[in-house]
């Protein structure tokens, strides 16, 4: 998975978090870039209006 900030392909950590604010409890995958350390969502939801 390529970092959207620096373009590196190194992943140092993967995290799964559930949405709690709006009550959907949908699971989202995040990853931390092994190069620059940025934490970012793996797949940006298509319908951001729900959130």
Please specify the SSE layout and strand pairing.
Layout: E1 11-18, E2 27-33, E3 39-41
Antiparallel strand pairs: 1-2, 2-3
Verbal overview:
This protein is mainly beta and 51 residues long. The chain has one domain. Helices cover 0% and strands 35% of the residues. The protein contains no helices and three strands. The chain has a three-stranded antiparallel β-sheet, with no helix packed on it. The radius of gyration is 12 Å and the shape is elongated. 2% of the residues are buried. The model has no long low-confidence stretch (mean pLDDT 94).
Shape: elongated
Structural domains: how many: 1
Q: Which class do the helix and strand fractions yield?
A: mainly beta
Kindly state the percentage of residues in helix: under 10%
The secondary-structure element order is: EEE
Give, in spatial order, the strands making up the sheet with the most strands.
1-2-3
Question: What is the tally of beta strands?
Answer: 3
Biggest sheet layout: 3 strands, antiparallel
Percent in strands: 35-45%
Our Rg estimate from Cα atoms comes to 12 Å
């Amino acid at each position: 998975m390529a970092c959207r900030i620096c373009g590196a392909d190194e992943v140092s950590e993967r995290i799964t978090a559930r949405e709690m604010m709006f009550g959907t409890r949908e699971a989202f995958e995040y990853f931390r870039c092994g190069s620059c350390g940025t934490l970012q969502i793996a797949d940006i939801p298509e319908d951001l209006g729900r959130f």
